[in-house]
Write a structure and sequence with these properties.
The protein has about 160 residues and is mainly α. The chain has helices spanning about 1-30, 35, 55-70, 75-100, 110-125, 150-160. It has one domain. The termini are far apart.
Length: about 160
């Protein structure tokens, strides 16, 4: 029974991180910490961005949850930390691999779900090269869940491509 509860805690932490990431992206990264996130919206050829700092921000809570969870005899905090870490891993693979292709993973995926995620996130960057770019015009702040219309578009594109 403990395995079930621990697995549920991991799952809830993972799912909850999408909400946390969405809120942080919309209200913090596009808010008072825009000066850190802004270079992510400016086309460049740099290997690293100031925006990469945010990955470190998520490392600390997951590490602390796991450390204190282990110190307390593997209580719920360990599993919260594991869920946050799994989300971070998925974020790296999806955001840096599939979407921005800074690492070469998932680049040629045929998955309609993954293609929908890519379309959704790319819609977030559609104004980046605009002369009159305004961060307020950005949409779609999520990473693993984007509006259904992007999955529909990905499915349509896949069907047209297979014809």
């Amino acid at each position: 029974m403990n395995y079930l509860w621990n697995g549920l805690i991991i799952l809830l932490a993972f799912v909850g991180m999408e909400g946390v990431a969405w809120c942080l992206h919309k209200y913090v990264m596009h808010g008072f910490l825009w000066w850190v996130h802004k270079d992510h919206h400016i086309p460049h050829n740099k290997k690293f961005e100031r925006n990469d700092f945010f990955a470190l921000v998520f490392v600390f809570p997951s590490w602390l949850f796991m450390m204190f969870g282990i110190m307390a005899g593997c209580d719920y905090r360990l599993y919260l930390g594991i869920g946050i870490t799994l989300y971070g891993f998925c974020y790296a693979m999806i955001h840096e691999g599939l979407i921005h292709q800074r690492i070469k993973v998932l680049v040629n995926s045929k998955s309609v779900y993954l293609r929908g995620l890519r379309l959704g996130h790319l819609s977030h960057h559609v104004h980046d090269k605009s002369k009159n770019y305004r961060k307020e015009d950005d949409v779609c702040y999520g990473m693993l869940w984007v509006p259904y219309r992007f999955f529909k578009e990905a499915r349509m594109r896949a069907e047209v491509g297979n014809s």
